[in-house]
Amino acid sequence: MPRKPAELTVQRDDILVAAAGVFQERGYQGATMADIASRVNLTAGSLYHHFPAGKRDLLLAVLNTSIDRVLAEVEEILEESATASDRLRRMIASHVINVTSNVSFGAAMVFEIRALLDLQDAEEDRDRFLKRRDAFEHCFRKVIEQGIKSGEFRQVDVPVFVKAMLGAHNWISVWYRPGGRLSGQAISQQMGDMFLHALTC
Amino acid sequence: MPRKPAELTVQRDDILVAAAGVFQERGYQGATMADIASRVNLTAGSLYHHFPAGKRDLLLAVLNTSIDRVLAEVEEILEESATASDRLRRMIASHVINVTSNVSFGAAMVFEIRALLDLQDAEEDRDRFLKRRDAFEHCFRKVIEQGIKSGEFRQVDVPVFVKAMLGAHNWISVWYRPGGRLSGQAISQQMGDMFLHALTC
DNA sequence: GTCTATAAACGGATAGAC
DNA sequence: GTCTATCCGTTTATAGAC
Questions:
Q1: How far is B148 from chain A (nearest CA, A)?
Q2: Cβ(A119)–Cβ(A126) under 8 Å?
Q3: What does the alpha-carbon distance between residue A160 and residue B190 come to, in Å, rounded to a whole number?
Q4: Is some CB atom of chain A closer than 8 A to the CB atom of B160?
Q5: Alpha helices, DSSP H only, in B79-183?
Q6: Distance of residue B57 Cα from the nearest chain A Cα, in angstroms
């Protein structure tokens, strides 16, 4: 089957990246279909050929792409046979690198959940997304509980500790600037040191 | 001068609280003047009597109220003559209690900065707000730097550590539920323990 | 597959009565 | 000080040409 040169056809993924970028800059409510379309050299009407349900579809696709990326990795790490410390450090690194590598998708997970909750007639999509988000948080709770049980970690309030960690990670999407003083790698190292220190003294 | 019973007159502050609440639920872009007005039993047009410049004025007033509250307290604590550990713990408590006591105002500081940045012809207001926000962050940096210098704290990357802390605090406005398992006091205790641990081992 | 044109709805802001 | 009525710009989504 002959394949067209990628750059000659506007792909679904290109539109998704454009949407995530506009959501980051203007928010879901502030983003217009024209904003998104112009990023891929289309007009607003043309987007409906790729996403028939329009803006709501774009939001759901961006959010699902985001959560799928981070959830798959941490679920895998959780199941490995290593110490809780090692696995937690790797889970932190996975999350942080994901945020710094896909800032606009990471920012969507932080700032556009409210828009998701407001979507009418999207109960099913909403519930599936929220379930995955809970599963993501659950992975972090689990590894910390295992570390406490094994004596690697001190006693902490696990839900609060995990919320604090994820808050710190999520906030990276607000202040991180690619090409700045710190690479995503460097930040993930700092976060890992910080939270492991908080658990192991 | 005779004073009218407070509950008979819609006060500026009531409208501000209403606006903060609607911003929290729908976001600045998603909030309508009618939404805000109905919370104080007014119609949209009536709000312009209290806030002539309309929605933008409401946003600026909410954000300035929020930053003023938290900044004043931490600046004061920073200047006290106590150990860095003591002052940091109190600064954390101050910030966390402020967030849990005024969730919608705290949420505005997290979620509506982008709306502020998008405001046209508001450079002056924007700059004054951002300056105060930087000052707030500076207080936390300062106390940690002092603790490192005095040997109370271990060496950390101060900017990253502070961003992580503030991210954890800010995120509280997303998950905190008054009347839930944890009081604001309990959360502030946990946060203090956590970050002091991360600094003192 | 993309365009133009347009329908239909919405929301911020204003004017003027009370 | 609050209301009602209304103007006007914006935006989503659709229809149909190319």
A1: 15
A2: yes
A3: 7
A4: yes
A5: 84-101, 103-111, 113-118, 123-149, 158-175
A6: 18
Enumerate residues 6+ apart whose C-beta is below 8 A from A14: A40
Pull the structure tokens for residue B129. 């707000």
Both structure tokens of B102: 């005024």
Domains detected in chain A: 56-199 (1.10.357.10)
Handedness of CA B153, B135, A165, B182 (dihedral sign): positive
Q: How many helices, marked H, and strands, marked E, lie in chain B?
A: 10, 0
Per-residue pLDDT of chain B (201 residues; tens, 9 = 90+): 444 454 556 689 999 999 999 999 999 999 999 999 999 999 999 999 999 999 999 999 999 999 999 999 999 999 999 999 999 999 999 999 999 999 999 999 999 999 999 999 999 999 999 999 999 999 999 999 999 999 999 999 999 999 999 999 999 999 999 999 999 999 999 999 999 999 998
Residues on chain B touching A30 (C-beta within 8 angstroms): 29, 115, 118
Question: For residues A70 and A95, is the Cβ–Cβ distance under 8 A?
Answer: yes
H or E element, residue A122: none
* CB distance under 7 Å to strand D: residues: A 31-34, 44-45, 48, 52-56; B 9-10, 37, 41-46, 49-50
As given in the structure block, the two tokens for residue B37 are 């007005």
> Quick check: A160 and B197 CB within 8 A?
no
CB B66 within 8 A of CB B116: no
| Least CB–CB distance from B118: residue in A26, A191, A195 | A26
Residue A116 has a CB neighbour count (10 Å cut-off) of 19
Cβ-Cβ contacts under 8 Å, B32 against chain A: none
Q: Which residue is nearest to nucleotide C2 (CA to C1')?
A: A46
- Tokens, residue A182: 């710190």
Is any Cβ of chain B less than 8 angstroms from the Cβ of A71? no
Rounded distance, CA B145 to CA B94, Å? 19
